[in-house]
Structures are given as structure tokens and as C-alpha cells.
Amino acid sequence: MARYMRPPNTSLFVRNISDEPEDLRREFGRYGPIVDVYIPLDFYTRQPRGFAYIQYPFPMIFNCVCCC
């Protein structure tokens, strides 16, 4: 048994995204309230790296969120 119990995961990793966080908020907001949308930038070019993390306020079952 592990000594440290991690809190439940409340973020969702999304690949092949557009550059606008508002688009992601609109699309994934229908599955529940969103706390934050984080799009990492390349250190040198300051361009989006093509993926994002979407954080929800509580643990969810992400099996229903499917983007093909």
C-alpha cells in the first residue's frame, strides 16, 4: 500500500487543439464547469505546443468525453 494517497485527478489532457482557450471552454464546458484551461507555450517561440489541460472543480468520469 502506498504511503501517500494522491487526490483524485480533476484535469483532462487534450491533444491537437486550436490556439484559443475560449474554444476549449465552449466545447468542454458542456460536460461540467471548468476551473482552468492551460495551454503550454514553447519556451523559445512562445507558440502553443499543441496540447492543453482542462481542469474541472471535482473528479469526473471522463469516459463520456471523447473527441475523435
From TrEMBL:
InterPro entries: Nucleotide-bd_a/b_plait_sf, RBD_domain_sf, RBM, RRM_dom. SUPFAM superfamilies: RNA-binding domain, RBD. This is RRM domain-containing protein. The keyword tRNA-binding does not apply. GO terms for molecular function: RNA binding. Transmembrane segments: none annotated. Residues 10-56 form the RRM domain. Keywords: RNA-binding. The keyword RNA-binding applies. It comes from the Eukaryota. Pfam families: RRM_1.
